[in-house]
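Render this sequence as a predicted structure.
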Amino acid sequence: MQKDLEHSLDRMTFMQQMINLDINMNRITRQILQHINSIDRKVKQINLSKHLKKEVDIGANGTQGYTIKQGLNKGKVISASK
């Protein structure tokens, strides 16, 4: 009787340990999956920012020039590149 009781207690502690191990493994697996998802999200964001950026046309529409506001040459545009 005593031996059967000890055996059943050992079995119960073993089952509890297995349940705890399973819970810990689920937590670790979840953390690994979250890390992988965050890396994927960062890579997608970097790729989008690389490929969707459009190059700016420097000096387009006369934006590099300066218009003189007063004096003899009022209204003339002085360009930056000569």
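Summary. The chain has a mean pLDDT of 77. Residues 2-57 form one domain.
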